[in-house]
Design a protein that fits this description.
42% strand, Coagulation Factor XIII, Chain A, domain 1, two-stranded antiparallel ribbon, mainly beta, globular, 121 residues
């Protein structure tokens, strides 16, 4: 069944994210990204290198570019590759709507995937 978006964001604004948890695994790398094709591909909106989960504040502002296209159902994702302990890859997603440019397009880095079966992508 189709899932309704949990929130609507306007292109040119920021998405505020707060990470919660008690096991920072030595920090690591986080990426915040968006998908317009049900999670088949993602465009990275923000990288946080080395200390993603060890910052004193786990609050991040993720810019949504002005040229982001409109969508009634996009997927916003947070990924984390830990720096310590076993090799792990974490990903959380949420369905969102985007009020953007009717002719907009969004390009950028692809989401980095590691520490799962199949290796680095």
């Amino acid at each position: 069944p189709a899932v309704k978006p949990t929130q609507t964001f306007k292109a040119g604004t920021s998405i505020n994210v707060e990470i919660e948890g008690t096991a920072p695994h030595g920090g690591g790398h986080c990426q915040f990204a968006i998908s317009y094709d049900d999670g088949k591909t993602f465009v990275v909106l923000r990288d946080v290198m080395h200390n993603c989960t060890t910052n004193k504040s786990l609050k991040y502002s993720v810019p949504l570019p002005k040229n982001a296209p409109s969508s009634k159902k996009a997927t916003f994702a947070w990924t984390w590759i830990n720096a310590g302990g076993d090799y792990q890859y974490y990903m959380n997603c949420v369905d969102v709507a985007i009020e953007g440019s009717p002719n907009g397009s969004l390009t950028g880095k692809k989401l980095f995937v590691a520490n799962i079966l199949g290796g680095v992508k």
